[in-house]
Amino acid sequence: MLGPVILAASRSDKMRRFVSAAPGTKQVVARFIAGETVEQVVPIVKDAAAKGLEVTLDVVGEDITTPEQAAAARDAYLDLIEHLAGLGLGTKAEMSVKLSMFGQALEGGHELALANVRPVVEAAAAIGTTVTLDAEDHTTLDSMFAIHEELRKGFPQTGCVIQAYLFRTEDDARRLADAGSRVRVVKGAYKEPASVAYQDKAEIDKAFVRILKILMKGGGYPMIGSHDPRLIAITQELAHRAGRKPDEYEFQMLYGIRGDEHLRLAAEGHRMRVYTAYGTDWYGYFMRRLAEKPANLLFFLRSMITKG
After folding, report:
1. Coil vs helix vs strand at 205
2. What are the b/e assignments for 75-96, b being 16+ CB within 10 Å?
3. Global confidence as pTM
4. How far does Cα 151 stand from its chain's mean position?
5. Is residue 137 within 8 Å of 98, Cβ to Cβ?
């Protein structure tokens, strides 16, 4: 029951100030956030590649209130791409973007977000990699999918994310699987009402499996965003049944969570991509990580007590 409370807190400026000032925060944030600057994250990308892992990089920050901030977010990704260019990793180092960072919630936000994300997708393609559009709360999804469809006209490798807890997602999965997209399926990490989303964990897991079946049978490239051992095993079985080779789908997990499992899957020949977030505006991302798993919250609380 704590998850919804924490997600609500992720929107609170008062809680942002309290958490940021808490004695144990820095230690726990470092577990989930790879660094504050691109210079700090590049060595982590290199180390992951040396271990047979792939990455998707997220410059954190969603509270965009002006067009100038949206342009700055665009420029941060362009700077990241310049740094990635010298590594020569191709799609082993891709990017994940939230359209809210590019101004989606502002006046004229759909067009603004498309205008800001397009040069990032173009620059990524120029160095041999790609971009995945992250899913946010349900009110933003029609815009996100429309931008995804528009970008794929010139850059068909552009990916998107679907969230298993939303009632609409099975239909979205059918449409995207048929289109041959790169599709990441996750459980979902936003506070959503019962009118649009499953609230029970067991129901979300069932929906996740139904969506997996759709994606595995389809013509697209599934990306499975989960740390759940049972869902990972089900994914492997469904991929086998669908006749998919190990390079025809991939697993994705978060930086700082189940690192041994990252290495195990890679050693078994699976494509294993680590979702690696960095930047100074870490609060919203950090709070969703706490909400997803009670163990993360307990780790944070213990750190506060230890450092207090």
Report:
1. helix
2. ebbeebbebbeeeebeebbbbb
3. 0.88
4. 18
5. no
Q: Quick check: is 184 catalytic?
A: yes
Q: Pick the catalytic residue from 74, 152, 182, 184.
A: 184
Residues shown for the chain = 308
pLDDT tens-digit readout, 25-43: 666 677 788 988 999 999 9
Give the separation between CA 278 and CA 113, rounded to whole angstroms.
Answer: 21
**Helices then strands, each counted (H, E), the chain:** 13, 8
pLDDT at 196 over 90: yes
Which amino acid is present at 198? Answer: Y
CB atoms within 10 A of CB 169: 26
Q: Determine which one of 58, 134, 172, 205 is catalytic.
A: 134
Dihedral angle sign, alpha carbons of residues 230, 33, 76, 7: positive
Q: Which residues contact 203 (CB under 8 A, 6 or more apart)?
A: none
CA 297 to centroid of chain Cα atoms: 20
The yes-or-no verdict on residue 45 having pLDDT over 50 is yes
Q: For the segment 265-295, what is each residue's pLDDT rounded down to a tens digit? A: 999 999 999 999 998 776 766 666 666 655 5
DSSP label of 33? B
109-112 LR contacts (CB < 8 Å, sep 24+): 109/143, 110/143, 110/146, 110/147, 112/67, 112/70
The H or E element spanning position 7 is: helix 2-9
Active site residue 134: yes
For the segment 51-87, what is each residue's pLDDT rounded down to a tens digit?
999 999 999 976 789 999 999 999 999 999 999 999 9
Whether the CB-CB separation of 186 and 251 falls below 8 Å is answered with: no
